Amino acid sequence: MGSEAPNDSIEKELRRLEQRVEELVDLCRQMKVENRALHARMGILSGERAQLLQRNEMARNRVESIVSRLRGMEHG
Fold this sequence. Notes:
The protein is mainly α. Helix content is 92%, strand content 0%.
């Protein structure tokens, strides 16, 4: 037979499981922090994207206007 009593073996296993649970709780906390940071970053990037799309639309409208004026000058 082994030198450990069954209760000692159970206690060791419980301590091991408790340590693993603590590690998983820490990992969960870290992931929550990272998730919050990623959501904040996503909000910033969405705002930047909207601004860029608006600027792109304005530039496209200006180019179309210039092209129309140039065509008008050709035929005028």
